[in-house]
Structure formats: C-alpha cells, structure tokens
C-alpha cells in the first residue's frame, strides 16, 4: 500500500548551533567542468578543468550537479539526450568534507551558492577520526563494528538500531568560521519529509550512511570464525590498527569496489532514502551532499536522486565519474590510507563501470530502481516530489 507523504508541519524550533558550512582543515577545491566523455580526457586535463571557477580553496570535489549535467546534454549528439530533462542550476551540489573550509569558503558557499541545507553522510566517529579528505571512511566503520560486536552488553537498540538523523540550525552571524554550537537531538526519521526550514536558517543533517546494517552484514559477517578470533586476539594485544587492516583484507578487499557498492545497495537503502526525503522538501534547497571524499556514499545518493529526476544511466554515470578528476590531487595519499585498511588502490578510484554495474545489480534484484526505492519507503509520490525539486520546467534549447 502506498503511504502518502506527510503534509508540511510547523518549522522545527530554532536552536543556535553550529553553522552547517563552518568546519576546518585543508585541501584544494575542485569543480569538474562538463566532460563530454570523461574517459577520453587525460587525468591532468580533467584536474585542470576541475579546479577552475568554483571560488573555493579548501573544499575538494565540489560541483554543481545540474549545471554539469545540462552541459553534458547540450553537447551530446545522441538522439536519446533529446529526451533528457533539464535540471535546475545552483540547486544541488556535491563535495568532499567541509571541515577544511576557510572563512572565505564559507562566505562563498553562503553567498555565491546560497547553500541552505547540508547533508553529511559520515558517522560521528568518522567526523572525529578522519582528519583529511584522503582518509578512508572504512577505518572508522570497521572500528565501530568491532566495538559493537565485541561489546559484552548489547541492548535492543544495538541489535536493531533506528538510523539516526541529526540536525543542526544556525541563525547566528555565520561569518566566523570558528563558531560552533551544540547539535540538536536526533530528528525522527519518519518526519524527515515534513521538515520545513524557517526564518532563513541554514541546516545540517547528519545521516550515518554506512550504518549498523552495513557494518554487520558487509563488514563483520563475511569473516569466518577463525578470522573473528584473530581479530579479538589482535585487539586484546593492543594492535587495533592491524585488526582493522585484517578485516579490510578478509571481508572487503575480496569483493572489490563493485562488491562494496553492491553492499551499499543491499544494506544502506534506508539511509539513502533518508537523504532523498530531505531533498524532497523544496524549502531545503539549495542542498549540498557530502561525505569524506564525496565519491562513494555521496555518489550513491546523488545517483538515486538523478534517477528520480529522470536522468539516464549514461548521464548519472558521467556525473559519478567526475570524482576521478575531482580527487586526483588527493589520490596518492588516498592510496596510502586505503592500504592501512587492507584495501588496494582501486578503492581510491571512481570508474564509470562501478556505478553502472551497481544500477544494473539493483534492477536485476528489484525489477527497477523505482521498486528498490519504494521498498525502502520512497514511493512514487516521494519520487515525484524530489523530481519536481530537481527538474527545471523550461524545455531544452539546443544550438543548431
């Protein structure tokens, strides 16, 4: 039975807290420019294009999804592209972590891009431990699961936790990049779609994309009994880094990057839908979605959003592949960080076939992407709301 989307309620009460755009650290901002066929350009050419025009100096892998997509459609000679929708420009953005933002970056995000809502797909532990955009999110994910599985006491919430959605609001002077306030309590997941920003405040929502379901089924359960015993022994001896590396080597590396994305599809559907429901609220736009690198988790959420907008798989994959150039300057360090988690260099990349294969995997398993989203609580009514927020009403005008 289709569950109707909830009607918009009164705005949530304002609580002075951290500006969603104010964080800290340091990495080159990049805004990949439209690439007709990303695979045909050399990485250094893509990187040069990616660095131009964003106005940001310390936010990596940043781009306007709609602007790049529209440029791709206009450049493509394919008759199929004639059927593609036109997306709103300056509406949906994606990037790597914002913790490195300078005060000027914050002003640019606020005033040039008008960012109103930030959706952060990292865990609390990851925000504390990953001090660099090149850090692998799998280290804190594995560490969390080790602590969860080896804890002698588990509550019902530990076994079947409800995915937390944390929110924060700012109605303070946001020019000070060092200002941080308390975070609001978690917002009930069922009410996400009815959250309506009020008073021009900026919002940050934290969604732990790689939640308990992913950690348990994608990280811990693939290990054999002997491997789990060895992990316990390593931790008992104080060698947690080696324990994390071993789990990566034994549970994640064998499946490859494509297998990891299949696990995302299987075990992170609820979290993907949480992000999409925030994006189905028109008052939340312009929206910026990010994780640590803005590649994997952000890539999955943006891919599902673009599908709801009616974008073809070809163009969805093109947007995803731009992260290869967007993170090119970080790649050497990313490879080193991946090695600490027991993963090979391929996990640092964003090859087009990874996402195209994952979309095919979803379709083969669920019949369609629409069915997949509906099974996780994002039915046609929700999908239509999101599409209306992303798609421009005017038709495409092509140059002859």
UniProtKB/TrEMBL annotation:
Compositionally biased intervals (Pro residues): 1-14
Composition bias type Low complexity, residue spans: 15-49
Entry-linked Pfam families: Y_phosphatase3
InterPro entries, per the entry: Prot-tyrosine_phosphatase-like (IPR029021), Tyr/Ser_Pase_IphP-type (IPR026893), Tyr_Pase_AS (IPR016130), Tyr_Pase_dom (IPR000387)
Residue span of region Disordered: 1-63, 149-176
Entry GO MF terms: phosphoprotein phosphatase activity
Signal peptide boundaries: none
Domain Tyrosine specific protein phosphatases positions: 270-342
PROSITE patterns in the cross-refs: TYR_PHOSPHATASE_1, TYR_PHOSPHATASE_2
PANTHER family: TYROSINE SPECIFIC PROTEIN PHOSPHATASES DOMAIN-CONTAINING PROTEIN (PTHR31126:SF1), TYROSINE-PROTEIN PHOSPHATASE (PTHR31126)
The protein's name in its UniProt record: Tyrosine specific protein phosphatases domain-containing protein
């Amino acid at each position: 039975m289709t569950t109707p989307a909830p009607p918009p309620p009164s705005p949530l009460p304002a609580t002075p807290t951290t500006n969603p755009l104010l964080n800290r650290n340091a990495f080159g901002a990049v805004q990949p420019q439209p690439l007709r066929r990303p695979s045909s350009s050399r990485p250094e050419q893509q990187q040069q294009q990616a660095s131009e025009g964003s106005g940001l100096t310390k936010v990596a892998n940043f781009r306007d999804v709609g602007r790049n997509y529209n440029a791709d459609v206009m450049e493509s000679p394919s008759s199929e592209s004639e059927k593609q929708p036109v997306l709103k420009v300056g509406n949906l953005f994606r990037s790597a972590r914002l913790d490195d933002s300078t005060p000027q970056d914050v002003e640019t995000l606020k005033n040039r891009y008008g960012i109103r809502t930030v959706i952060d797909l990292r865990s609390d532990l990851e925000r504390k431990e990953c001090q660099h955009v090149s850090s692998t999110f799998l280290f804190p994910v594995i560490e969390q699961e080790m602590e969860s599985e080896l804890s002698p006491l588990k509550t019902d919430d530990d076994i079947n936790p409800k995915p937390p959605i944390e929110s924060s609001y700012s109605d303070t002077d946001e020019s000070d990049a060092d200002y941080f306030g308390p975070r609001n309590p978690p917002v009930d997941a069922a009410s996400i779609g009815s959250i309506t920003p009020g008073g021009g405040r900026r919002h940050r929502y934290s969604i732990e994309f790689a939640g308990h379901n992913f950690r348990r089924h994608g990280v811990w359960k693939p290990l054999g009994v002997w491997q789990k015993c060895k992990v316990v022994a390593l931790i008992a001896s104080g060698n947690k880094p080696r324990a994390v590396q071993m789990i990566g080597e034994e549970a994640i590396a064998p499946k490859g990057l494509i297998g990891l994305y299949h696990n995302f599809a299987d075990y992170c559907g609820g979290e993907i839908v949480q992000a999409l429901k925030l994006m189905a609220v028109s008052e939340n736009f312009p929206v910026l979605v990010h994780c640590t690198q803005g590649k994997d988790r952000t890539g999955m959420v943006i891919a599902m959003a673009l599908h709801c907008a009616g974008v073809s798989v070809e163009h969805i994959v093109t947007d995803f592949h731009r992260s290869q150039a967007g993170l090119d300057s970080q790649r050497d360090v990313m490879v080193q960080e991946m090695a600490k988690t027991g993963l090979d260099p391929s996990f640092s990349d964003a090859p087009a076939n990874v996402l195209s294969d994952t979309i095919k995997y979803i379709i083969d398993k669920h019949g369609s992407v629409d069915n997949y989203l509906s099974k996780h609580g994002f039915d046609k009514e929700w999908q239509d709301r999101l599409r209306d927020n992303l798609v421009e009403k005017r038709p495409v005008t092509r140059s002859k």
